[in-house]
């Protein structure tokens, strides 16, 4: 446990759901975990006891990636954990593969509707056309403009053109739109939709005042910092500012809210974690500004300023995008100037 984690409270301690089992966290709210093929090796998913149009069953929140072993674990969940009841609805917080990957299978398997925000549904569809945010020629060109010069690294990025499709082979052909401020009735309780920006195009968290529970998705995580990146399909974006502004909306929720994150353990300490994230990025921004004060810096130059550990190819794609996000926030604040050199590389320098 790192120093910041000591400021949070974990009601279940180190207890985790065993594979293909669930833990009840609040009445009708069950926690399960599925494996991921990354350094971040798990995702938390949620089962909410529900009743829709007179039918008893469950709402699933987030799905896991599309892999045979994940489907097999889901089948065990269906057999052992659903009390003989069906899945009535699938809610996806956002379009990243670990959240939407098996939505097509779950909705078909149970003839259940998908609910999510329109922007994330549309971007998921766009990623299936080959316009992936994770790799391919356009992403490699984007990274090269921001200073990535290693031929091997660039080739690795180009080879990841089908990365999204491998974990999200399809998405359901239709969906039910949810909007910021909507109330979704689940199991006799109102769950309020809180849309956040920066990590995904239109990320939906769900807050239930009656249960004092927040399904935070990736917007608020207890141990790691949510990835905030500038992507090739929105190269002029300012996602870090959008993310920090979105975080402040969670301050309106009770301080003792039980937070159910997509990664890590359920915790209490929402306001503390929001403050920690602001402090984390403020420190990063200050180091980036200082580096740019020593001379023009590309995003590739900034990566070691933000990340002290060795990064694999998967992590590197996140790191480049995150470096650009910090540079862009300072640029849009007027604290950095931006120039494109004769070599085609974009660099940033401190103003004044």
From TrEMBL:
It comes from the Bacteria. It holds the Pfam family B_lactamase-like_C. It comes from Pigmentiphaga soli. This is MBL fold metallo-hydrolase. SMART domains: Lactamase_B. Coiled coil: none annotated. The lineage of its organism: Bacteria, Pseudomonadati, Pseudomonadota, Betaproteobacteria, Burkholderiales. Residues 42-263 form the Metallo-beta-lactamase domain.
């Amino acid at each position: 446990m790192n120093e910041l984690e000591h400021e949070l409270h974990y009601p279940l301690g180190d207890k985790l759901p065993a594979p293909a089992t669930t833990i009840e966290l609040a009445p009708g709210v069950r926690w399960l975990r599925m494996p991921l093929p990354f350094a971040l090796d798990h995702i938390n998913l949620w089962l909410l006891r529900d009743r829709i149009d007179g039918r008893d069953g469950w709402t699933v929140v987030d799905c896991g990636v599309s892999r045979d072993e994940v489907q097999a674990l889901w089948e065990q969940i269906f057999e052992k954990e659903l009390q003989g009841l069906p899945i009535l609805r699938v809610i996806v917080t956002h379009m990243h593969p670990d959240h939407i990957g098996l939505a097509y299978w779950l909705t078909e398997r149970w003839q259940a509707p998908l609910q999510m925000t329109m922007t994330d549904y549309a971007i998921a569809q766009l990623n299936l056309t080959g316009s992936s945010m994770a790799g391919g020629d356009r992403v490699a060109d984007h990274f090269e403009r921001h200073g990535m010069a290693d031929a091997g690294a660039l080739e690795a990025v180009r080879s990841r053109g089908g990365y999204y499709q491998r974990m999200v082979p399809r998405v359901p052909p239709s969906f039910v739109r949810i909007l910021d401020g909507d109330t979704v009735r689940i199991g006799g309780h109102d769950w309020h939709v809180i849309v956040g920006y920066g990590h995904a195009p239109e990320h939906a968290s769900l807050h239930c005042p009656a249960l004092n529970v927040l399904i935070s998705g990736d917007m608020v995580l207890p141990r790691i910092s949510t990835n905030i990146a500038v992507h090739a399909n929105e190269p002029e974006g300012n996602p870090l500012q959008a993310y920090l502004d979105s975080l402040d909306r969670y301050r309106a929720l009770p301080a003792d809210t039980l937070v159910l994150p997509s990664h890590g353990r359920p915790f209490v300490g929402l306001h503390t974690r929001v403050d920690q994230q602001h402090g984390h990025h403020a420190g990063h921004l200050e180091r980036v500004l200082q580096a740019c004060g020593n001379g023009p810096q590309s995003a590739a130059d900034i990566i070691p300023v933000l990340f002290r550990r060795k990064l694999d190819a998967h992590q590197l794609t996140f790191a480049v995008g995150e470096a650009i996000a910090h540079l862009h926030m300072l640029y849009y604040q007027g604290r950095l100037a931006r120039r494109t050199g004769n070599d085609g590389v974009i660099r940033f320098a401190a103003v004044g």
